[in-house]
C-alpha cells in the first residue's frame, strides 16, 4: 500500500524544538521530491520545505529558513523535519507530501 504516515507532533514551548517524521511505504522517498506543508484552521495549506530527489537540494519557505531542516533517512525510508527555535506562529497541522500523495498530518502546537 502506498502511503505516508506522519508522527512526532506535540506541544512545545516557544524556543523549543521538535522532530517530525514521515514514514513512507509502497515507494522510496529518495526517488521523489518530498515536501512538508502546514495548515491552520481557515487558511490554505502552506508549503514549508522541499528536498529534491535528484540532487538532495533543499529549499525552505522564508518563514522557516534558518530554523527548520528537511532531510531523509533512506535506511528507514522516512522524511524528517527538524524544527528549532519554534514560535507560536508555527502552530499548525504538518503534512508530508510527494506528488499525488499526502499523509494524514500531525499537530504541532507552540505555546507557553
Q: What percentage of the residues does DSSP assign to strands (E)?
A: over 45%
Q: Into which percent range does the helicity of residues fall?
A: under 10%
What's the main sheet like? 7 strands, mixed
**Arithmetic mean of pLDDT:** 96
Shape: globular
Number of strands: 11
Order of helices and strands: EEEEEEEEEEE
Low-confidence runs: none
The value of Rg in angstroms is 13 Å
Tally of separate helices? 0
How far apart are the first and last residues' alpha carbons, in Å?
Answer: 39 Å
Structural class: mainly beta
SSE layout:
Layout: E1 3-7, E2 10-12, E3 18-25, E4 34-39, E5 46-51, E6 58-60, E7 68-73, E8 78-83, E9 92-98, E10 101-102, E11 106-110
Parallel strand pairs: 2-11
Antiparallel strand pairs: 1-3, 3-8, 4-5, 4-9, 5-6, 7-8, 9-10, 9-11
What would you say this structure looks like, in words?
This protein has 112 residues and is an all-beta fold. The chain contains no helices and eleven strands. Strands 2, 4, 5, 6, 9, 10 and 11 form a seven-stranded mixed beta sheet that branches. It has a four-stranded antiparallel beta sheet with strand order 1-3-8-7, with no helix packed on it. A hairpin with a 2-residue loop joins strand 9 (92-98) and strand 10 (101-102). The radius of gyration is 13 Å and the shape is globular. 30% of the residues are buried.
Amino acid at each position: 500500500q502506498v502511503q505516508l504516515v506522519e508522527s512526532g507532533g506535540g506541544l512545545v514551548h516557544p524556543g523549543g524544538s521538535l522532530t517530525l517524521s514521515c514514514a513512507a511505504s509502497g515507494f522510496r522517498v529518495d526517488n521523489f521530491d518530498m515536501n512538508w506543508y502546514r495548515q491552520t484552521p481557515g487558511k490554505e495549506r502552506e508549503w514549508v520545505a522541499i528536498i529534491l530527489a535528484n540532487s538532495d537540494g533543499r529549499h525552505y519557505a522564508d518563514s522557516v529558513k534558518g530554523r527548520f531542516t528537511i532531510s531523509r533517512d533512506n535506511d528507514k525510508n522516512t522524511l524528517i523535519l527538524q524544527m528549532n527555535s519554534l514560535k507560536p506562529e508555527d502552530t499548525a497541522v504538518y503534512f508530508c507530501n510527494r506528488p499525488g500523495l499526502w499523509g494524514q498530518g500531525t499537530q504541532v502546537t507552540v505555546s507557553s
